[in-house]
Write a structure and sequence with these properties.
By secondary structure, this protein is of the alpha+beta class. It is built from twelve helices and ten strands. A hairpin with a 3-residue loop joins strand 4 and strand 5.
């Protein structure tokens, strides 16, 4: 079976790639990385003007009405450029409301999220590395939320947060709600900062079909992380090839040394075959529902592991420079580390995939 992208999907990727290269060149990326807020209003406005903030929001609510595959293709380009911003959490919040919200909830929130006027995020992880819906303990009783959440992407910035609750449900929480306390956490990826949230009888609004949507929300998140890691891994590979061509040792570019050639080839051959995993997992989300959960777990586990391995090789091939703050390799290395850890480690998802496969 031949599985490839349509002309429209290829154009989407080229457009996003052009935007990232044009609007966030290395100097600007480095400045934003050093600053650490992980957000630039001009970049967010640009994404919104291209329709990316409402990519999976239905057309009736002001969005593009596309599928998770298109969302993953965009994530790949953003990962390749290490673009700072709340795209991950915002996209998952849009998807959560689209999948689990009532008609009233969709009409109230999706149009504002689709235009990027309001920024969304998701709060899923809890202390003890509990990411899965069946392990959530935050209590939403009588419209009041109590508990804690960790690793919330852009949690302090978001206007609306979709919170995972006990029993695998989902609830909506607005910024500034009484009893909500956000605390910044020193995360590894400065392009996507995370916060810890605490709720003390905080007013919330349960999503009508949140329990049915939470597992699918996780699967979509795994697809987006896998795609982002693929983009980061390819950027690291290209950066390292260019460095090897320019770095001279014993009067020759180190790219001419056989051992270096082998390492560079290993980097490319480790990541490129995984592209099909990311494409299929995102495609399966909408079209092969029986296999979607397992495909997402496999893509996340395998691609994120390969991305971190490639990042380590990139540091080694950059020599002593690769370990310094001044070397931009760290930006994509930390991006890959975030993708590997968020929503659960590869070890966790390999075990899930094995179980889902009957092993």
């Amino acid at each position: 079976m031949h599985f490839g992208l349509t002309e429209e999907q290829e154009l989407l990727q080229e457009t996003v790639k052009g935007f990232v290269e044009g609007e966030c060149p290395p100097q600007k990326l480095r400045a934003l990385f050093d600053e650490g807020s992980g957000h630039d209003p001009a970049l967010w406005k640009g994404l919104a003007e291209m329709g990316l903030t409402g990519l999976v929001v239905g057309e009736g609510y002001g969005g593009a009405g596309l599928e998770v595959l298109e969302l993953a293709l965009v994530s790949e380009m953003l990962g390749g450029g290490a673009l700072p911003g709340p795209f991950l959490g915002h996209s998952l919040a849009c998807l959560a409301i689209s999948l689990g919200g009532s008609e009233e909830q969709k009409r109230r929130w999706l149009p504002q999220l689709a235009t990027g006027e309001r920024i969304g995020s998701v709060a899923l992880a809890e202390p003890g590395d509990r990411w899965e819906p069946e392990t959530w303990g935050a209590s939403a009783t009588d419209g009041r939320l109590s508990g804690e959440k960790q690793h919330v992407p852009h949690g302090a910035l978001a206007d609306l947060i979709v919170v995972g609750t006990a029993g695998g449900g989902l609830a909506l929480l607005e910024k500034g709600a009484p009893g909500l306390v956000a605390r910044s956490v020193a995360g590894v990826d400065r392009t996507r900062p995370v916060d810890a949230l605490r709720f003390d009888a905080t007013p919330c609004e349960p999503l009508a079909d949140g329990a049915a949507a939470s597992g699918r929300l996780r699967d979509a998140g795994l697809c987006l992380l896998a795609a982002d890691a693929l983009g980061a891994a390819w950027t690291l590979t290209r950066m390292t090839v260019e460095y090897a061509k320019s770095r001279r040792q014993f009067g020759r570019p180190i790219a001419e040394f056989q051992a270096v050639k082998h390492q560079l080839a290993d980097m490319a051959t480790a990541i490129e075959p995984t592209r099909g995993l990311h494409w299929y997992a995102a495609h399966a989300f909408d079209h092969v529902r029986d296999d979607a959960e397992r495909a997402a777990a496999i893509a996340k586990a395998h691609i994120c592991d390969r991305a971190v391995e490639i990042a380590r090789a990139a540091v080694e091939l950059h020599g002593g420079l690769g370990f310094t703050w001044e070397c931009d390799v760290q930006i994509w290395f930390k991006r890959a580390m975030f993708d590997r850890a968020f929503l659960g480690t590869p070890e966790h998802h390999r075990a899930r995939a094995a179980g889902l496969g009957g092993y």
